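Hello again,

I reread your note about wanting to compare the complex against the isolated chains. To keep things tidy I'm splitting this into two emails, and this first one only covers the full assembly. Below are the input lines as submitted, including protein chains and any nucleic acid or small-molecule components. They are followed by the predicted structure of everything together. The single-chain runs will come separately.
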Amino acid sequence: MEWATEVLSYFTSDFLWAGAVLAVKITVVSMVIGLTFGLVLALMRMSEYRPIAGVAWVYIWVMRGTPLLLQLVFIFDALPLVGLKFDSFTTAVIGFSLNQAAFSAEILRGGILSVSPQQAVAASSLGMGPMLTLRRIVLPQAMRAILPALANDTIGMLKMTSVASVIFVNELTFRAQQIVGENFKFFTVFAGAGLIYLLLTSIISIVQMTLERSLDPDRRQQAGPRGRLGFGRRGQVALPVATAGPARKASRVETVRELIPAASATSSDQPFLQCTNVWKAYGERDVLKGISFDVKPGEVVAVIGPSGSGKSTLLRLVNHLESIDQGEIRVGGRYVGYVKENGHLKPISGRARARAEVGVSMVFQSFNLFANLTALENIMEAPVRVHGVPKAEAEALARRLLAAVGLSSHADHLPQHLSGGQQQRVAIARALAVKPRLMLFDEPTSALDPELVGEVLSVMRALAEAGMTMVIVTHEIRFAREVADRVVFFDDGNIVEEGAPADVLDRPKMERTRQFLSAISNESDDEEVA
Amino acid sequence: MRSSVLSLAIAASIALASAPVLADAPKCEPEKVAEKYPELAGKTLLMGADGQTPPYAYLDSKTNTLVGSDIDLAKKVFDCIGVKYEIRPAAWSGIFPAVVAGQMDLMFYIYYNAKRVQQADFVVYMKAGTGAITQKGNPKNIKSNDDLCGKTVAVGLGTVEEAQMKELGGKCVAAGKETVTVMTYPDHAAGFRLVANKRADVMLTDLALVDRTVADNPDVYVRAYGIISGFQIGAAVKKGNKVLADALLDGLKAVQASGGEQEVFKKYGVDPALELPAELKTN
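Full-complex prediction:
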């Protein structure tokens, strides 16, 4: 057992531990700098602007492709020639940080790409800027994919600091080698040093585990009032379902009316949304061919037409999720994220802010609730982060909106635990929370099971009755007939026909409209038969 | 206070009076550092050392500081010059580049050769001997460099032995024999492990290191052969750092004159015959 005592004596050696502390210091500092720089690189890599993406690509290519040892010696011994002289520790930190940046850039990029782009689109439609979206929505979801790889890198770096012995960094492995160089007791010395490494890497593994748990939205939810690592929040409060029974519909309309801005505040003769000669092409294909189209305050417009006719594109142009090629769109008399120059609209930065100011909200076919946030948090996010509403006030509003869509008891549920219809109702509540003056619905019921369509349509009906200005792209002809003030039929990038529902849907003037409507009704007949 | 002033005055006057006569036998005059080497006064010299080269430089297990013949000799020289110093350990391959780059002021114990002297200035102070260490009982019966064809030879990465063995390999092939398989190791301990584990037949390194290792581990190793290689070993400073090179030269001469180098060599079991009169080499 003599060897065991010896291993233990090396494991507890102050000399070796001093080296371990140095290794930990280098690792921690380099990891922090490397991650920060890595995030910048990852964003550069994903930039639409080619030269920026290129610079990041070249950096990553060089740093990943050359040995760390070489980089360290270069920084330590070659840079002094141009007057940059760093001490050993600084050199190690620079070398490891620059290297780690390249590796973590790719890990972070992978993580960010693993999050559905629709999450960012939804955030953007709520007026959240790119950095806010990244910090609040994308990264929290990406972190679960990122963390295990980063823990690997951290452990790898801790052990790899021994490479720095060529630049006079006297860390753990190198100290162990020096002891061996004197007494040649390889096994006991390296076993002692190995135990120190094992202890340190175990700590990293535990930190990884704790972080992973805290990032798991399900666990976070179970953590209840105390939460973990400061992610905690108030526990579930089972509120009584405010709206139930026969009084439901009327009270819902009332509630919604209270919650939305008065529609007729502006002169109702003036259109709220004005689209003039809008052109949009994807590559060679013209999707919208000079559409002109107005919506008055308080008006509900149903847009119908075959798939690919440009209906959804029009909605995305209205709140500038995509840029317009020609023509102009004004909402409340303003351009959303454009300035007019020489008769043309030029996109400017800060369109998220412009969207928030103009007051356009969007509801998507695929709901696009933020997967890392509960129903309540989904609704509170934009008011708190974009409009600076105090948390308590935002929460009160969010709870009232949830009640209005009949989901009070689901406030603390994650999207993944809600049905499609429930998710879409939360999405509508979320869109309402920013007090929009215009709501855009992009086929809000197309992704739903038939039996869930009704609950969403009834919420939309209540909105319409409360006087909200709405543009609804839909295939629900019956709903359009019931709710819309006006129906617009799109085909092949053009408005073929528009007018009162009774005219367009029941007495269409155009042959193309008739064809479409009969195809649709056949389809629904088929469904009913089946 | 008065006595030190007095002794300073006496020393100064003696130095003044005797300087022309004793020009070839420099003395240690640490108190005159500001006068003799103004650039060095108050400076802390940084010396890089590989702590895995016993008996020249290795870790003292009691104090966890570097000791060894080169460390002791360097300290004597620094004390003689009258400068402060700090000795920092690093992996062998990183030390010379650091001296060339000016990250370290100097290193002791590096073989002087035509290629290295283009990058740094040398003050040589000892002759080199190469030792060949093999497994106990010398199973491959290696007696000289001539027996190395067809063998696996461990040499330090970037050492003169590495270059020699690559050259020897070519000669073996030219003579119709098998070439030399050269294995390089990053530190001596790793080299010794190659021999102990029979991954290498023989390891070529410094003679004193070989002797000491064999003496410490008689059950594992034996010395196959030893040769005085004719190489000179010195201290290296950044090319053109004349002040430091001169100071080292004076210091080494003075330490040698007073028998200090002999004393250090004996203490660490280095053959005193390896002492070489200090000389500055700049090309």
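For quick reference: Residues 213 and 267 of chain B are 16 Å apart (CA to CA).

B.
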